[in-house]
Design brief:
It is an enzyme of class 2 (transferase). The chain is α/β, with parallel strands linked by helices. The chain has 2 domains: 156 residues, HUPs (Rossmann fold); 125 residues, Elongation Factor Tu (Ef-tu), domain 3 (Beta Barrel). It is built from 8 helices and 16 strands. Strands 1-4-3-2-5-8 form a 6-stranded parallel sheet, with helices on one face. Strands 11-12-15-14-13-16 form a 6-stranded antiparallel barrel. The chain has a two-stranded antiparallel ribbon with strand order 6-7. Strand 9 and strand 10 form a beta hairpin. Helix 6 packs antiparallel against helix 7. The longest helix is centred in the C-terminal third of the chain and has 19 residues. It is elongated, with a radius of gyration of 22 Å.
């Protein structure tokens, strides 16, 4: 998959571009609803012997439109989005820089610059996709903006349990610790990637050594608490349990949540390595204990519950 980063105005010329079918949207999460749009574009491209592309945006429009100073947290930060889009089998990914100039672009100018000049001859988007200044372009009026050579396919709403699959819904269930529901909506477990860093090393003194994982600010975090997780180290997947929180038994810091994973049956040195944590099951909320022994007893219970969830005994 070729990845192209675009800003307005870009310097791409239509004559040098392949005839392409493109799925377009922000696609945070690349959830089942997004996948339906992208897979429809791929099907149309294969049937008509054209290339398949995804057009997306970065950063989130709210950064520009709402003048947000705080970091926006994503279900799939841009690097994760690239990986998930590539796994679906598209030929090109166009990442359009969302800035003030783009936000002021009229729907007609957007179509001319980012559709026609890239030689997109078939647009595929969800029913609620909007574009152009103040979102005034949409899937109802897009036919008035495109030329005669461009086709449009609108993909309808995709539901799970009679509710729309959406990034907003996924953020809500993640915030409630409903990891199985998040997995059903995403079509895969929710994951966070990060580097293993040195921590306080308390875990090893109580019989539960942990991999401390650096969490970048751009990740959307699930509910604070203890989880049954899987973790990818290199190309291997291991079972474990994770604590996302503030270690209240030892610290009064409530500003920065930390992620620690006790990996079952694992004793390798992985400092400095990048790992991926797959969140599978919420076990309990984080607690402050009156003694280290009380904490250890609770961790043992967490381990039993995590192993039972994965149906592993040793």
């Amino acid at each position: 998959m070729e990845v192209h980063s675009l800003v307005y105005p870009h310097q791409i010329t239509k004559e040098k571009q392949q005839n392409t079918v493109a799925a377009i949207g922000f696609f945070d999460g690349v959830h089942l609803g997004h996948q339906a749009v992208i897979q429809q574009a791929i099907r149309i491209a294969k049937q008509s012997d054209r290339k398949a592309a995804v057009i997306t945006f970065d950063p989130h429009p709210s950064v520009v439109l709402q003048n947000k100073q705080d970091t926006v947290r994503y279900i799939t930060p841009i690097e994760e989005k690239i990986k998930h889009v590539e796994s679906l089998g598209v030929d090109y990914l166009y990442i359009i820089r969302f800035d003030k100039k783009l936000a002021m672009l009229s729907p007609q100018a957007f179509i001319e610059h980012f559709i026609e000049e890239i030689n997109i001859t078939h647009i595929v988007a969800g029913f609620d996709f909007t574009f152009g200044h103040k979102g005034s372009g949409n899937m109802d009026n897009i036919h008035n903006l495109i030329n005669d050579e461009t086709e449009v396919t609108t993909v309808g709403r995709l539901d799970l349990n009679n509710k729309k699959i959406s990034s907003t819904r996924i953020r809500k269930v993640l915030g409630q610790g409903e990891m199985e529901e998040a997995e059903r909506l995403l079509g895969r477990p929710y994951s966070i990637a990060g580097e293993v860093i040195h921590g306080d090393k308390r875990g090893r003194t109580i019989g539960y050594p942990t991999a401390n994982i650096k969490i970048e600010d751009y990740y959307f975090l699930p509910r604070i608490g203890v989880y049954a997780v899987q973790i990818m180290v290199g190309n291997d997947i291991y079972y474990g349990m994770a604590n996302l929180g503030y270690n209240p038994t030892f610290s009064d810091d409530r500003e920065n949540a930390k992620l620690e994973v006790n990996i079952f049956n694992f004793d390798a040195n992985i400092y400095g390595e990048n790992v991926v944590v797959y969140w599978k099951k919420y076990i309990r909320n984080e607690e402050k204990f009156s003694s280290v022994d009380e904490l250890i007893d609770k961790i043992r219970e967490d381990e039993v519950k995590s192993r039972e969830f994965f149906s592993i005994n040793d």
